């Protein structure tokens, strides 16, 4: 994809890589996700144990936070997944009985077109979004179901984002949780700041879960940046990923009431200990150094416009 911002092919390709990584971890029993295989017909490639643990930590933490938000609001809320890729959170939440009023996914039209195609051809995926009193409406890159909405949009173009959300029947007065996994970092800070400021102003009560890089100033961070550039994935928003404090400040400076950032080592320590003990036994690590380096160079930032959500933690 090429346009005003140059080629986005490298960023779009990260979705396929993340899907394959998640599928590898699922196949080894890190967590259960019967829906992921619907988006990966060729099956997963084997990944190192450190990568599998990293994806487990990331996926479980975000799922638990979103689940808590839905439960605290007794389902009277919305989820907006920014740059959702082939994420299966809607289906996993529905299977556990935790469904919000509305679940909206936004991504590049090239990605949503593929996802729409996979949903159409998969009975489990299609059944889960169907409703007796609501016909599933779709075109090449957009899908409207009863609670689930999949929309093609460029997150750097705010009027486009707003139009797609309104087309999804978004309710600005309902509590809404936003999820972004390695999304803002691919946008220049001017564009990501515009988006965060707009959300804080437009939504009456918003909660944000942001997963991405941190501590990029050391040697390990430089190697990460170099590897991503070699795959044509320039981190235009890397400045906001310098430290945990800069991750928090990016929200507070755009009108959010507060934010808390924690690296993945801290997040790992907060996950349910019995499940962590189970996961550790799945694969042996030769040494913990690489895992520690990975965990200290990624983080989850939670931000809120409503102080009621400060209690939603791991």
UniProtKB/TrEMBL annotation:
Keyword Thylakoid part of the UniProt annotation: no
Top-level EC class as recorded in UniProt: transferase
EC nos: 2.1.1.233
Leader sequence residues: none
Superkingdom of origin: Eukaryota
Gene3D superfamilies for the chain: Vaccinia Virus protein VP39
UniProt GO cellular component terms: cytosol
Family: Belongs to the methyltransferase superfamily. LCMT family.
Functional description taken from the UniProt entry: Methylates the carboxyl group of the C-terminal leucine residue of protein phosphatase 2A catalytic subunits to form alpha-leucine ester residues.
The protein's name in its UniProt record: Leucine carboxyl methyltransferase 1
Organism: Hirondellea gigas
